[in-house]
Amino acid sequence: PNFKPSGDDVELYDLALWPERPWNFGGNQVEFDEEAAEYARDVITVCGGDPRQVSAEAMDEFDRRVECLRCSQAKRKGRLAMRWTTAIIHEIEYHHEEEWEGPRWKLLEDPSEMDLVRSKEQAIVKSWRKWVGCNHCGQTINSGALFWHLRTSHNINNITEAEALDHTFVPLDLSMKDAPHAIKLARATVT
Question: Quick check: pTM over 0.85?
Answer without folding.
Answer: no
